[in-house]
Design brief:
By secondary structure, the chain is mainly alpha-helical. It has one domain: Arc Repressor Mutant, subunit A. The longest helix has 23 residues.
């Protein structure tokens, strides 16, 4: 049996390949796909996006500007420019739905024949592993 580190490295590599394929299919960088998936139907602030995506301000600003130029998101003006809110356009919402559908289909392909107990166990163990990695207190530079 392979050790856990080897399995995790292999899994991370497979995830990168899946992301690369999804990126090519949608003609969007994976960073923009992640951003679209984190936007909701209600306005979202840059601070909220920065926290959920763990990105620095300049990277996030560039990604938001690109998605705005592509008419996938729009800026909801605020009295204070620093508190702008971002929301999906109809096109962005449709694309987000397409991405979510593709991810759901992938999930069904990978674990569709697993039983509910197996899925719950995997979810529990992965959440436990995530909580352990939180203890590392990794920060974005």
């Amino acid at each position: 049996m392979e050790d856990l580190t080897t399995v995790l490295v292999d899994l991370a590599q497979q995830i990168r390949l899946i992301e690369q394929q999804l990126s090519e299919q949608l003609d969007l960088p994976i960073s923009q796909i992640r951003l679209l998936l984190n936007l909701a139907e209600q306005p979202t602030s840059m601070t909220q996006l920065k926290q959920s995506l763990v990105l620095d301000n300049s990277t996030l600003s560039r990604q938001l500007a690109t998605l705005t130029d592509k008419k996938l998101i729009q800026v909801e003006p605020q009295p204070d420019k620093r508190q702008r809110q971002y929301i999906l356009t109809a096109t962005g919402s449709h694309l987000q739905h397409t991405i979510e559908t593709q991810l759901h289909d992938l999930e069904q392909f990978l674990i569709g024949n697993w039983g509910p107990d197996e899925i719950r166990l995997l979810t529990t163990l992965l959440n436990r592993l995530l909580r352990s990695t939180d203890k590392l207190q990794l920060k974005v530079r």
